[in-house]
Amino acid sequence: MGMVDRYKKPGGFVQLVQVIETCNAKKREQFMNIIAEENPEWAEALTQKSISFDKIVSWSPEVILEIMASVNQLAFSVALKSLAPEHLETFIQKLSPQDRRKIEMTLQEMNPTPNEIGASVMKVISETRGLLVQGSIKAEKIDPQLVIPDEFEAKLGKSARLEAAALSFEGPSTVVSTAANGAVATAEIEKLQKRLILLSKEVQILKNENQVMKDKLEKIKKIA
Q1: Do 134 and 181 lie in a common domain?
Q2: Any idea what the CATH number is for the domain that residue 155 is in?
Q3: What angle do CA 116, 57, 25 make, to 5 degrees?
Q4: Are 9 and 41 in contact (CB under 8 A)?
Q5: Structural domain boundaries enclosing 117
Q6: What is the pLDDT of residues 80-114, one digit of tens each?
Q7: How many helices (H) and strands (E) does the chain have?
């Protein structure tokens, strides 16, 4: 059984999303490569609907404040250490002056290890995904691409089956199309041949009439 097959059940896509989101970068890449080989459609959907800490801090201030009020405060502050300075500054500018001071003071006081930062990032992502699953924050208001409809697994499978069906008919349809084009070409040639015969007859008639006129002209000349 392939990796994707294990999750082709109601709610399986969300479970796989959560697995992908909470992996370290190396393992995530390995998983995504496996999934892409097994089922490119699932791989594309996972890429589109997965969240990251960078995505979270790029959302609107209202959504960010709601997340900060719901997730572990310390973990969120530590996770901010994963951001590049310019991204951190952009995020801080979204906050109210009071929240900004709190975050800046917390960041100055702490000196987490890379492992602690990584673990905090995963915790914030996991808890944010939980808020999305519960409906506490609405994916459609953040980014419509993040929405995971009910029975999404079946819809992905249906899409793949329709594509396969379309591909299976590609060969025969091409043959039919080619045959049809050939039939049209043959009919056109026959029409042209018939037209050519008619034109040849008309030319011959004109030649005969021309000869008759010449003969009459010669007779008139002799009489004159």
Answers
A1: no
A2: 1.10.220.30
A3: 50
A4: no
A5: 4-168
A6: 999 999 999 999 999 999 989 999 999 999 999 99
A7: 12, 0
